[in-house]
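## tool: complex_structure
## caller: assistant
## args:
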Amino acid sequence: MITKPDTRLLKAVALLLVAATAFVIASLVLGGDHAAATTVDPVVAPANTPKSQLVVQGLINGTVFGILLALAAVGLSLIYGTTGLSNFAHGEQVTFGAVLTYFLTTKSDVSLPLIPAQFNIGLPLPIAAIVAIIIAGGTGWLQDKLLWGPLRRRRIAALQQMIVSIGLSLALVNLFQWWVGGERYRLTTSIDSRLTFGDYYIGRQTLLSVVIALIALAGVAFFLLRTRLGRATRAIADNPALASASGIRVDGIIRLVWVMAAALAALGGILLALYENGLSFDQGARLLLLMFAAVTLGGLGQAFGALVGALVIGIVTEVSTVVVAPDMKYASALVILIVVLLIRPQGILGRAERVG
Amino acid sequence: MDLLIDALGESFAPATAAFAIAAIGLNFHFGLTGLLNMGQAGFMLLGMYGYAISIRNGLPIWAAILIAMGTAIVFGAILGWPTLKLKGDYLSIVTIAAAEIVRYAGRSQTFVNLTGASVGIRGNEYKGPFEDLSPFPDERITVLWWTYHGSASNSWWLRLVAWTFVGLMLLVFWRLSRSPWGRVLKGIREDEDAVRSLGKNVYWYKMQALIIGGVIGALGGVIWSLGNSVQPDSMGRATTFWIWTLLLLGGAATVFGPVVGSIVFWTALSLVKGLAKLFIPESIMPSTVIEPFALMLVGVTLMLLVIFRPQGLLGNKKELAFHA
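## result:
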């Protein structure tokens, strides 16, 4: 339910956003002497780096990852809030944004499944990204029109729809593998230069991604809290029947939510592909559980919960590498999910209610 | 013709039996109790590790199987404790997360001495004792149109044992689902509050169902590992989704549903791949993409099944309803 959180929480979230923005601006201003990093591998630090420094660098990386993850996950939360569907195919929306951008921007030959021809489109990255986001939004519209809308009209239970979304996810991830194959691709060949300040660093391109993500998230917040349509969205999340009775076009709003969710997921996918320096057909599938963890942690269906949850997940993921092996970092994020559910099943921002 | 024989051979392959067993376990969860366990592959993987690591350390087979079952019991208890009080989607998210934790831990370099990390454990390190038990000769044997080895790896011996196990598990399911205990589980599936008001401890019943289904899943994993090798990435999320597909295909909450589902699933998959290779020209579909193409169809099948025929091939529409 996307009810308006009480002002304290809103303030806390706003403060968080302000702090993050301030951090970004400060690092832009202060970190002027960017060493053109020769290697772009942000994970590897010299072996004798002190733990505290690793933790702080982990905090920085984690905040970045968390913000990007929030962008990808906010749509998942919106869809759950308005329709009650845990959409397991959301990860594929994330992949789709990245793969489509790669398809449009790469200089090498690409092809489509079943069509025995090679293309070479090679648009500049920003234009390719915008086109991809628009097309992704279109797939959201199409999906709701052809699949989820009819299912809702047939009154198929939410859990049954969830298994349909699992089937869709399975179909799409294999379609993407068919489309681009199993290799890893990069969206851009340019090497990200680093801004260093003291002992810490952040990529210039990463910083830009964070700014874009924060603007998009602020846009979503503005939409939900200040516009008529946003209010209608929250009304549906609260009580669809009542919303419908008060003259809100429930189906229209839900379709809009699907378009937004798909477009935001695509943007998230593109930015994450830039951040992780590569994309593959299972990019979103790997992130799906982290997104679910973020949304569940924040409180299922709380739009701002996704942001808080994603920050927690991002920071836990990155900071945990100080203690556990890097190939276990996703596992530690999922352990946090289970621990939080033990203590506070409704999530961090969720209202206490019986969930069993 | 070869195609047909290959496909029919799939219908009694050890992997088919292993998935049927895992699906019988899931049938305890979903079919009887209505639990949305999305981590059945995690139970299978634990069973595989439990068995292979025990054998490698010189334990006898019966002990290894007990250990495989024991890990599943512990895992089920840990998993059920926080989640069985929560509603459906929480349970599914937590079970899928827990299964992924097992897989991440299994493929991590941290435990490389125990699990062999992402390479896994090779078959010849743990298959020996089982293959030594084989009464069949140590050579390739042809029965009708199929030729398999008598006792090594993907053998007639493993087929015999695997399908005996399937039969045993069917018997267990049939007995338990018709017992008073099974009726309580069905009651929980239909209306949890009503069962609670009768004074039953719903939480404890759900826990029992979760653990029993999980142990059966682990046994399925052991059978699977005897025909292949222990490899964490072969038990990812997709595996769980396949088990769901074939359970829903055969018909959840029915006795033979999981077995029929598994046979139809693997035979059809083999047929589709064979036909695609035969009839679709290389220029349109190169042979490398046949696998993703076939698995894409699995996803589409799952969607269509759930939408149009949730009761599957054998099920009863009234019996199978999705409850929150």
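## assistant note: Residues 202-227 of chain B form the longest helix (26 residues). Chain B touches chain A through 57 residues (CB under 8 Å). Handing back to user.
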